[in-house]
Design brief:
alpha+beta; globular; 5-stranded antiparallel β-sheet
């Protein structure tokens, strides 16, 4: 399945609106895992996660001790969280771009430390 950057941005905007509504209903609720799974259901892709304890080079994930990302179409790495943005990072990285790979390594550490979630059927 081919997914464009524009489709990803549109899905992220929709997700942001939905998450803002949920936060207004229950301000203390953490939405990170729900957000990345919801985006996977919309765009497809595979979830990857890492533990900060096992990936000490990662700058993102220290708040919860772990972090989840989505890889779509073998090309786009998507971060639904806000921590990377607070550190000067983005939300979408093109894995075909050497420049973006440098950012991925900078924010998310050693990709050999990531776990890839087994295929899950869409909900």
């Amino acid at each position: 399945m081919t997914v464009t950057l524009e489709q990803i941005q549109e899905a992220l905007e929709c997700l942001d609106r939905r998450m803002a509504e949920r936060r207004s209903e229950d301000p203390g609720r953490y939405e990170g895992a729900d957000a990345v799974r919801s985006l996977r259901d919309a765009l497809g892709g595979r979830l990857v996660r890492y533990s900060v304890a096992l990936n000490p080079g990662a700058r993102v994930g220290h708040v919860t001790g772990m972090h989840e990302l989505l890889v779509v179409a073998g090309r786009w790495l998507i971060d639904c969280g806000e921590e990377a943005a607070s550190l000067g990072g983005g939300r979408v990285y093109d894995l075909w771009s050497p420049r973006d790979w440098r950012h991925v390594h900078r924010f998310y550490g050693d990709i050999r430390r990531w776990e890839i979630e087994a295929d899950q059927p869409a909900r």
